[in-house]
Amino acid sequence: MGYNSDVQAVIYGKPDDMDAYITTEGLIFNNTVFKDFNQSLRYYEAKIYDTKMKILHLYGDGWKWYDDYEDVVAWMKFMRDSVEHDLDFEFIRVGENTGDIETESSPNSAGLLYVRNPTIANDFDMDKEIALIFLGS
């Protein structure tokens, strides 16, 4: 058991710059540090404000995302270092507790990720539905 978070991050930029960064950094989905992310990484071509870009998208629901985990440290470094290669990034983590939302982005990010309607849950069991009761007049 542990604290779980929903996480999304994107790194994006001009196609040649993205290909060079991923190749240079040895990510190409076989780096052992990123092995836990392998099934949750996708690489897309897309248009951002009418400009052709490539986007590396990391996503996961219910992950144990702790700042001192080796793969989390490596991902955050990889993401932040992308700025030095004329790329942009965005990161959002939504935790289990109300208001536990962490965001980070590069200075010129395009706002591709955002939080909308964080998940709402309850801790009561619903045995059966009963008629609505209106209190007061």
Distance between the termini: 46 Å
What is the general shape?
globular
Fraction of residues in helix: 10-25%
Q: From N to C, what is the helix and strand string?
A: EHEEHEE
| CATH class membership | Alpha Beta
* Contiguous runs where pLDDT drops below 50 for at least 5 residues: 130-137
How is the main sheet built?
5 strands, antiparallel
Mean pLDDT: 79
- The tally of strands reads 5
Q: How many individual domains?
A: 1
> What fold name goes in the CATH topology slot?
Alpha-Beta Plaits
In the CATH hierarchy, what is the architecture at level 2?
2-Layer Sandwich
Strand content: 25-35%
Oligomer: single chain
Question: Which strands sit side by side, in order, in the main sheet?
Answer: 2-3-1-4-5
Rounded to an integer in angstroms, the radius of gyration calculated over CA atoms is 19 Å
Q: Which structural category do the helix and sheet elements fall into?
A: alpha+beta
Summarize the structure.
With 137 residues, the protein is α+β, with helices and mostly antiparallel strands. It is 16% helix and 31% strand.
